Amino acid sequence: MTFGLSPHAAGLLTRLRRFIAERVMPADAEFLDEVSVGDRWELTPKQVEILEGLKKQARALGLWNLWHPEAGGLSTVEYAYMAEEMGKSHLAPEVCNCNAPDTGNMEVFHKYGTPAMKKAWLEPLMAGDIRSAYLMTEPQVASSDATNISLSCVKSGEEYVLNGEKWWATGAGDPRCSVYIVMVRTSHKGPRHEQHSMIVVPANAKGIEKLRPMEVYGHDDAPHGHFHVRFTDVRVPLEAMLLGEGRGFEIAQGRLGPGRIHHCMRAIGMAEKALELMCERSLERKAFGAPLAELGGNYDVIANGRMEIEQARLLCLKAAWMMDQGDARAAAPWISMIKVAGPEVALKVTDAAVQMHGAMGVSQDTPLARQWTHLRTLRLADGPDAVHRRQVARAELRQYRKPS
Amino acid sequence: MTFGLSPHAAGLLTRLRRFIAERVMPADAEFLDEVSVGDRWELTPKQVEILEGLKKQARALGLWNLWHPEAGGLSTVEYAYMAEEMGKSHLAPEVCNCNAPDTGNMEVFHKYGTPAMKKAWLEPLMAGDIRSAYLMTEPQVASSDATNISLSCVKSGEEYVLNGEKWWATGAGDPRCSVYIVMVRTSHKGPRHEQHSMIVVPANAKGIEKLRPMEVYGHDDAPHGHFHVRFTDVRVPLEAMLLGEGRGFEIAQGRLGPGRIHHCMRAIGMAEKALELMCERSLERKAFGAPLAELGGNYDVIANGRMEIEQARLLCLKAAWMMDQGDARAAAPWISMIKVAGPEVALKVTDAAVQMHGAMGVSQDTPLARQWTHLRTLRLADGPDAVHRRQVARAELRQYRKPS
Amino acid sequence: MTFGLSPHAAGLLTRLRRFIAERVMPADAEFLDEVSVGDRWELTPKQVEILEGLKKQARALGLWNLWHPEAGGLSTVEYAYMAEEMGKSHLAPEVCNCNAPDTGNMEVFHKYGTPAMKKAWLEPLMAGDIRSAYLMTEPQVASSDATNISLSCVKSGEEYVLNGEKWWATGAGDPRCSVYIVMVRTSHKGPRHEQHSMIVVPANAKGIEKLRPMEVYGHDDAPHGHFHVRFTDVRVPLEAMLLGEGRGFEIAQGRLGPGRIHHCMRAIGMAEKALELMCERSLERKAFGAPLAELGGNYDVIANGRMEIEQARLLCLKAAWMMDQGDARAAAPWISMIKVAGPEVALKVTDAAVQMHGAMGVSQDTPLARQWTHLRTLRLADGPDAVHRRQVARAELRQYRKPS
Amino acid sequence: MTFGLSPHAAGLLTRLRRFIAERVMPADAEFLDEVSVGDRWELTPKQVEILEGLKKQARALGLWNLWHPEAGGLSTVEYAYMAEEMGKSHLAPEVCNCNAPDTGNMEVFHKYGTPAMKKAWLEPLMAGDIRSAYLMTEPQVASSDATNISLSCVKSGEEYVLNGEKWWATGAGDPRCSVYIVMVRTSHKGPRHEQHSMIVVPANAKGIEKLRPMEVYGHDDAPHGHFHVRFTDVRVPLEAMLLGEGRGFEIAQGRLGPGRIHHCMRAIGMAEKALELMCERSLERKAFGAPLAELGGNYDVIANGRMEIEQARLLCLKAAWMMDQGDARAAAPWISMIKVAGPEVALKVTDAAVQMHGAMGVSQDTPLARQWTHLRTLRLADGPDAVHRRQVARAELRQYRKPS
């Protein structure tokens, strides 16, 4: 088991770190300030300029599509270090074309897409010209058990017709978002995990309404957003079906593994950033005659932050290493573990950093509050904690069960 | 030690509970939806209608100013039950003229105000005609140690001149907010707790700028708001000084005791509401073939919620009972205890309720996310947890210290 | 809801507190030191002298059988204060004839015993002349689900014949232990909660073997002890059956309610004692130039201890108050709550006190380590935490379930 | 960063694992049962037979002195895997001559001993012919701040004369324990960390009294033991001084690094064993109609155990890897981190396993209770948690402090 970097990866990491620290982070606040200018769901000229400028630089520096094994030339372990860095900046993941849900969607097109899909969607996504969304969870059912998913998809002549609602369509607010991958129910018969399918729908298909932006603890995350969407007789050609009817779960598994772990890698980066802000603040501010760092239990708070981050990062690296071994089934419990542990630690450290900042911590004056709300969604997205803990427990118990 | 209600109080509680459940709660969402209509910092005609209509009803039912010992005829213990009910609704505290920071400010005017102040500010506040703000914390210093407070207040002829910045002026966004009570520094000499003073400043005084609304995890809490305010050569007459120079801490102590406990009482109400929503959701939603309630550790989650709420409520009642005994010094550690324990429990139960709701929990579709962000500020407002824990520990150790 | 004491109870409490502090506590260590003298399972002459001397004093002071509503003249709430005091001393419960499992057994004889049983067992127990044991849990089954209990009891002519094993027969090591109340299975048919019975067996009945003392984290708790016992064709007359066959659970419920709460009351006393020892130690010992109290997070540790004890005590008083209202079914969730919360808090505070004492804390030089091991068993005895949490959750959810 | 094993190490691990599972573990209970036969502080013939037989086997299999870099040919990372295995068995560390405090003492002799000391003590220790103790902590001072240590050591002619008390002299009960390494105070002047020294004292030196065995939650850990020892005019030659007066802390640092991490490695092994026992129990036992594993929150308990063990193990491996890099100062915070995290996780998992076992868990019928008490001491031995957390925090903050 080795968590080291190849010389190629080490060089990339150095470059990436500098690029993010010197170019991307300074632009984060400026970009976010523009959100309230004009229509929240349009990019302002300044936002476009910032974003496209940085994307061009990222490309030039070879920091583009690093998530992609071939494009980046990185193992999952190596990519973990990159994703951690990107997690420290609001813009960095998009700037490097490594942001969710696009990476997952590109992976789906890459693995399961037809040549036509690759041409139409994968290429512009890889180029950063368009964005995409992934429509899974629904308002009317407990999506933690994904067999509940109910958006109806019925064959009608040469087309499929979709009806129903999805919400939390992350990224659907972005005007550049051009394509949705949608989990649908194509059957009510047969094995529970073979009644669902995944289908590709252009974002501008007739019959799609964006009902409203969902808020995350009050944030609408414009212009990216998380939309509540209604499908009314939305029609797509038969070729839009991925792999074939009933194979939705197979695709979801393939898609979610890397996606989950990328979120966790970035969460580690956010935790590091929170710890950094917390340390700086604890040395700057004084109360009762001493820097905050030296008051009460603050050493414990800082030490716990460091200890928990280290452990979560190592677990994340091990999960990545397991994925690199090529046995998805063996790696699954490790992904579940880090899916639970990563956000948990990052939330805890971020919350402690908020407290160290006093009232400033809950405000817009640090990235902490926003970061916390994003991290909080990770305990629900792609399977809530309880479901992942159950997976871990079942894997653990399997080795003790008597063969029957 | 008795936590019971007099027949008068019991009658009030029944009436209050019904009024809030039947009239106020149903109006909460409608009122909040109006916030995004027009200028966020103006009340829309509909908001005015809702609010004033409910206020009239509250008055008619004798549910007005219950926080005030004489007006309400309630002990602190008895008021705790009322405040808990009000905590369950967004509008209820204001509808019953029991909301922060007005109650604390009214108390200050009542105890320390001149007859002119009582006429000018206390009477319209008691009548619900105006609102007020309390300006304590500052961006440049660690206000957890309030001796750091630095807004300058210098005598100049027949006036005081104020210069500096305050933030988190809660309620200052409301167009009806007419008066500020401001903690200022009037001296840099003498005992540390005698260099500060409290002074009354009309909200429309020349030289006051509302720089920007502070956000709480993205919420601006419009139209109430929490403002960052700048004072530039703001002039008030000498009579605006409360009690006299150097007595700021004395007033702050008198003000904060009841205020802190009122927040905690309402926090218990929020926790109860979260538990209620969590239970309902856990029975409604199904996954893996069973209601969520019966899956995994959810019984534990619900039981822990119930157990922790009960304990926090009892502690709150005991703190209230201590206050009713009339010895403020003896009651102080109890107020510190509940100041820590109340928000902690309410946050925990609210977070668990969020998790039980899945993605809906973090959204605008339940009051949980907003409630969480409000509760989170209570771990900082009126003294951060660490300062209150220190107070509790020092009181505890005092009895073991050798007399020297 | 009132948690106050009548003048009678207040007087008793004052007397009890002084008696325990001045007479009983000083004898604790002396008594325990004698355990290793001679046969651990006999009382040494010195132990007899200490114990009987103190019992005589307790009787003379009217501090005898306070647990018994008529003998003590106390409500459950009032008794809670007494039990808390007794919890602070190893010997006090026995000295005041208030110790487990005797009080529970006396209650069974009182409520369900025949006149002959009252004469033979209840009278000498009330007089402190004999001791008793309660045999419930078994090594071969998960006794958390008491319907698993399997010790066989079969009618044979004019006798019942018992066969099987019990363990954790607390008190069975005491040479004065004369009688066992035994939960047995008398049927394998009918409703699950009507297959078990409770029967009275003299400790010296033929066929009973004390196989071995069970250890609690290494302590055998001699001479009291917790024994693993085997029944081989043990015969008792038909009249030994309590209430009638199949009514074991009915009796167990009546027995366990008060017993559970008494344990919790004493646990609160242990927590108080731990906090006291912790505070004293934190002021006495110095490291890095300051008393431990002032180092790192120790204020937080002390404050948390105080806050959690207060909350647990109030919950315990409320559970007692619920019992005093006379509706056992309504009180049940409260007993479950305190059954979980009491030991949890007491364990936490005791563990923190151990840590504050350094290596001394884990040793025989303070009562902390022994106290911890005893408290740890309370998370299992009379139903493990998980079972009680489930009861609390089910009671909570009941109010939300749709009537079917 | 690589946590892999060389082929040599991998082979050793396979052999060690099998040897412990098949030979050593089955002997554990038998050995411990003998403790109560005859004098607890003598080895019975059967104990000698078991121990010496296994030691001979370990030697023959090349599983002897693996802790020693040269003897074992292992890196610290590689040894971590071995130590984890040994942690699962009571006897294994001694059987493989890898037990505390002997390894630390051998290291001291190896690094700092004179040729005479190596001949007299190191050789027989390496051969497993004698045992040793390390006398650091004292009853009268807070040894968490080791500058408090006060056992007096005064030069008198050609000898040093020692007076004072030590306690928790682990291993001093063993009749084969022949030599003590003792931390003493040789000066009251000069820098705080140069007033102490380390000196070698034969266990049978005149003037040494073993006052009493210290108990750990009731266990005396005979025949190994933890003794309270008094030195009265104990005389040793000047050559007994290690390195020279005033260099005690220098030696202690060199000694404690590896020792601390070895404890943690074994703690991980104990945690694994607890998880294993917990899983087995949860599948075997039934309550309410299902295996315990499927009831309530037990999946969460098991999953948390697995997740926390994985993280702690990885942190331990990283600390080992840091040590292998050869920069002791850089590795120090990592050792502090694992010193806190290792026992914490192992205690938590062990406690959860106790709970899953019901009353059996607290008894002598599983290794869990004993293991818990041992693990609990690790939160105090070699520096309490708070001191290590402080070290971690200080290292963290160092990078943010402005150079002055």
From TrEMBL, chains A, B, C, D:
Q: What are the required cofactors?
A: FAD
| Highest taxon listed in the record's lineage | Bacteria
Asked whether the UniProt record includes Transit peptide among its keywords, one would answer no
Residue stretches making up the Acyl-CoA dehydrogenase/oxidase N-terminal domain: 15-129
Q: Give the Acyl-CoA oxidase/dehydrogenase middle domain ranges.
A: 133-229
Gene Ontology CC annotation, any one: cytoplasm
Q: Name one GO biological process term.
A: fatty acid beta-oxidation using acyl-CoA dehydrogenase
GO molecular function of the protein, one example? acyl-CoA dehydrogenase activity
Q: Which UniProt keywords apply?
A: FAD, Flavoprotein, Oxidoreductase
A UniProt-annotated Pfam family: Acyl-CoA_dh_1
* SUPFAM superfamilies xref list: Acyl-CoA dehydrogenase C-terminal domain-like, Acyl-CoA dehydrogenase NM domain-like
Annotated Acyl-CoA dehydrogenase/oxidase C-terminal domain ranges read 246-395
Subunit structure, as described in the record: Homodimer.
Q: Per the similarity annotation, which family is this?
A: Belongs to the acyl-CoA dehydrogenase family.
Please give the name of this protein. Acyl-CoA dehydrogenase family protein
